[in-house]
Amino acid sequence: MKNLWPEEFKPKEIKPAKAIIDEQAKLLPKITGDMVYAQVKKLRPIEANQLDHQNDFSYSFYLVAKFLQGYSFKVLVFSHPITMYPVKITLDELIADEIQSNREFEIKDENEFISILGKVLTSDRIMDVVGSIIRLSSEQ
To answer: How would you class 104 by CB atoms within 10 Å of its CB: exposed for 0-12, middle for 13-18, buried for 19 or more?
Structure first.
C-alpha cells in the first residue's frame, strides 16, 4: 500500500502560552529580591472541569510568598487544546475589572496572549499584591 502520510511534519513556529508564562515567572524573583516568585501548576482533570477549563492542557498561575508560609495569590487560570491556541483564560476578578476585560475569554494567538499577559502583570492589582507580600515578608 502507498504511504498516505506527508513526507515530513514541521513543528509550529509559535510559543505556547505556558512557555511565555514560565519565562515571566523566572523574572519575578529577581525583581522582588527573591521575596515573591511565580508558579505555574498543572490542573488535575477534576480541577480543570470544576473551573470550566476542559482543554487538553490546563494550568493555574500563582504569585507565591517565599516567607509567608503557605500564601499564594491566583492570578489566572489558562488552558488550551493540543494546537496551542486559542487559549482560554479566567482572570482574578479585580484584575479583569481593572483592565476592562471579561473575567473569562479566549485568546486566538501568541501576540494577543503576550499583550493581555502584559496588561495583567503590570496591573495595579498585581502591584498591590506583590507590594503587600514584600511588606508582610519583611515583617516576618
So the answer is: middle
